[in-house]
Amino acid sequence: MIASSSVETSSLPRCTSLRIGDRAPDFSARTTHGEFIMSALRGHWVLLFAHPADFTPVCTSEFIALARSAEEFQQRDCALLGISADSLPAHLAWVEAIHTQFGIQIPFPIIEDPSLAVARAYGMIDGTAQDSATVRSVFMIDPSGTIRSILNYPATVGRSVPELLRLLCALQEVDRAGTLTPESWQPGDRTVAPPLQTQAAVEKAGAKWFFQPAGKTRP
Ligand code: BEZ
Predict the structure, then answer these.
(1) Thioredoxin domain: which residues (predicted)?
(2) 153 and 75 in one domain?
């Protein structure tokens, strides 16, 4: 059953706690770019990011930064998808205000979720929330529809768009090369080899067997 933020919500769990490796729940919704079905994005990477409310300062800063980096996500075959409990008219007014006041076009769709059907299905509700504000959740979903990363930030702290881009690049590199990305890895940096599995491999690798560089990656 496809969840819908604007039509049918009764079949959805009240609140789920998704984990890395789970399938991203499917849903249909109205967005600033028209009707949308999540499963239509299978075959592409998806960055689904929830924000607490339209017309708020931290959210505006995040949207401006995401708009400025949108081409880089697109080059990496990653669709950007915003969501909040605000209505479609509120989203449209906010997008228009960002354009007129700051000269920035928001090039990605923003989902309306007034019933919180999608927010509940994805566990985007802050446990301490007094209202419909969703936590600053980020779901990185791979082309097979599997959740590969989940980030949660409080309403008071903006997310780092360069870090979201780095996360995408790292996941794509891990999939491509079968290696691992170390702390603060950036595209072009060396990756590290996966943990060794046998005593023979450990003996062959020497004293630094638990921390071995892998091959040089492409920029
Ligand atoms: C903000 O984006 O600035 C914000 C949103 C909700 C609560 C507080 C701040």
Answers:
(1) 18-173
(2) yes
Q: What digits encode the pLDDT tens for the residues 97-156?
A: 999 999 999 999 999 999 999 999 999 987 666 677 778 999 999 999 999 999 999 999
In a domain, 172, yes or no: no
Q: Are both 186 and 141 inside the same structural domain?
A: no
pTM, entire model: 0.91
Q: Same domain for 65 and 125?
A: yes
Q: Are 107 and 198 within one domain?
A: no
pLDDT higher than threshold 50 for residue 217: no
**What burial class does residue 1 get, using C-beta atoms within 10 Å of its C-beta: 0-12 exposed, 13-18 middle, 19+ buried?**
exposed
In this structure, the residues whose C-beta lies within 6 A of any atom of ligand 1 are 52-53, 56-59, 133, 155
Name the residue of 54, 55, 56 whose CB sits within 8 Å of the most ligand 1 atoms, as the mutation to test its pocket: 56
Find all residues with CB under 8 Å of 96, minimum gap 6, and list them: none
**E strand or H helix at 58, and its extent?**
helix 57-75
How far is the centre of ligand 1, averaged over its atoms, from the C-alpha of 130 (Å)?
Answer: 14
Structural domain that includes position 200: 178-216
